[in-house]
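yo

u said u wanted the structure for the complex thing, so here. seqs first:
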Amino acid sequence: MTWGDRGVQADRGVQDQADRGAQDLGNRRAHDLAAGLSELGCRALLVVAQSASDPDLAPFLGARAHLGAALLVAPREGRPRLAYLNPMEREEAAATGLLLVTPEELETLRAAREAPEPAAYLAWVMSRALAASGVAPGRVALAGLAPAGEIHSACAALARQGWEWVAGNELVRLVRKRKTAPELAAIRAAAGAAVDVMRALAARLAAARGIPGGHAGSAGGELWLDGRPLTVGRLRGEAARLLADRGVDQPHGNILAPGGEGGVPHSAGSDGRPLRAGEPLIVDLFPRGAWRERPLMFADCTRTLCAGEPPPAVARAHAAVLRALAAARSLAVPGARGWDLQEAVCLTFEEAGYATPLRQPGTTTGYVHNLGHGIGYELHELPIFRKVAGAEGVLAEGDVFTLEPGLYDPAAGWGVRLEDLCYLGPDGLEVLTPLPYDLDPRRWTLDP
Amino acid sequence: MTWGDRGVQADRGVQDQADRGAQDLGNRRAHDLAAGLSELGCRALLVVAQSASDPDLAPFLGARAHLGAALLVAPREGRPRLAYLNPMEREEAAATGLLLVTPEELETLRAAREAPEPAAYLAWVMSRALAASGVAPGRVALAGLAPAGEIHSACAALARQGWEWVAGNELVRLVRKRKTAPELAAIRAAAGAAVDVMRALAARLAAARGIPGGHAGSAGGELWLDGRPLTVGRLRGEAARLLADRGVDQPHGNILAPGGEGGVPHSAGSDGRPLRAGEPLIVDLFPRGAWRERPLMFADCTRTLCAGEPPPAVARAHAAVLRALAAARSLAVPGARGWDLQEAVCLTFEEAGYATPLRQPGTTTGYVHNLGHGIGYELHELPIFRKVAGAEGVLAEGDVFTLEPGLYDPAAGWGVRLEDLCYLGPDGLEVLTPLPYDLDPRRWTLDP
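structre next:
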């Protein structure tokens, strides 16, 4: 079985990269997918996608695709086929190198007349894509992201024609857990941009000056830079511009959470909020490679910065988080369970006197979340660090994941998090986001 | 029934905007939703979303939300509730102003232990979110974007407990077809950025110089600017930087398609491709407001530019497309069907001797697509311009949509498309992307 056969001329550099990726896919992923389908008792995988960036479709597409709604049929034996719905996308579909099912074969014009209602149209193209790929009614694994009500109605209608549907999203997540060479290259590129921009933001903070006694009741004076207050929104704007300069975008935004906003890990931070001396700022960047690299992959890294003297509790938490991160990195080897690392980090924190979810599930003070997450086509994918039994929770060579311990005290108004993006390669763990860990951004400029 | 009750302090400007939006929603959308649910015989709407940017969830959220997976339950009578899954998102959830169902009420920790498999976990939180919102088992409309296999399995499992699922995505599309004041403001902001950047790209093309006899077999010489060849990739990079400067991103990329690549409407264009004098370039920008404006809304506009003398066929097509666009605009009034406009444009083109899908369905030469599409939380939403019977194909006051006739000759190697983003307001049709239409970018600089 070969995937992504390259029958079509395309941009040369992209083509070379895609060839290597296709080979990777052909060698390992096709095997993993076939084995997974056997285990589920399915004759094929059907991916229903809204666009080429669907995380279950993108791994099949190779270098380049600008596609709207599309389906992919991967029979347990034989090559996968891409069914596209819009005749205007014929060149983009051809550039994927996949075998194609055309809109004409799907009879989309007839479907628009005879089954215009969205769920009926979806059922129509699903059954025709399967038939055109040589898959007869039977048990099929279903993946992709789809309109919830419409996909359920379509599946229920097709069940009356002999189709039986099995949840296949997790299978595709497992198949794409270990990264191919072009996927890793794209993650490296996005990570490089995040590293550059994190350094630039630290330099801005290092250059800012506190206005003594700025704001009543604040930890310290407001930070000013170039004659203007340095706000969360201003720093967020600079981050967006600098990331765009490097060809990456931020489909899920970012986190720039000062003081108490950083005390709740997923708070994005308020743009109008001024930054203050002596107050920690959590900077969590999770951009996605945009127009320069294909495939489109996420990167993710976090630092906590504090211009001016940090409160003792923050300095102490920062040191504890740094130790926890080092402990987690040392345990991240192939075959380790994510949960083992999470437990080790919890014990590290408990020894230092912080609450953790190990003994206090649901705690909102101390260490309050999981250690990390896989990353790739999605910001959060496999491996996971929860207590689970299966392969989704076991680290393997080729995995890319974050390690991001943190400590939080929302009542006292602070949070500290440090996050490395890691690749578990043939030579061990590699940190893809090499950056200083210092709280004080002025120390960053001393670091080469 | 009131939606988006604002019980929580937030950024003041954002709050004001959200209040107006909530009022709009309260006045009209809640009524439309309740009527739609009645028609479907449903006691509630359930939206299952992967993030706050889910197009079926976002309209309920008001000004700001940084949320991962979440559910929304809108009973036919009573206020909607947001069920969030991650305790770390409590501040972000609270900032939506919606009634909340907490992770504790959903028993997510217990679910992770007792129903760790993704479809079982999903079924768990769906049934608990409904119960916590006072909805007893029965007929429910389902919307949102979800993992296809998992949502189907979850629905099938819940059906055995008395739940009956009806496709609800189209209902939400209809409810959000007419834009609220904050939605329109956000579209205007994104459209303003697209207009600025289109002008900047035209200025770059106007400043470029053709190198005579540049490339063998080309239409004309390659274009150079500042001592370097002007390629698709270079222009695409400038577009990304300039858009980011304005706080918008491009989750679906863009189209910069020269010559033959522009002959197929959805071809994105190859970055390595040099631009040439006398060759039309389709520039189609469809950015989304990013970090400055909430809600996140798309804009969309297209121009066709040609530095140097255009081939006569291209100049003729451009004039015909411009006439078709004017005809479409003049017919775009409340109550008109999108299909009526499409037919009128087809007739305009047929009179000028071009093939259209009206007489030649599936043609790939001439006018080969529909006239436009609604736009908002998604790049493509309602109204639609296909031949359909329902309200989804009828223009109404408050709609925002594109009008984008084009002509294509892939064999001859060219395409021409002009696209206006339009708002059907109380005072008639307003073009949100006011730009020159000239093929020649040097004429753009003469235009104020």
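The first strand of chain A starts at residue 44 and ends at 49. Residues 12-40 of chain A form the longest helix (29 residues).
cya
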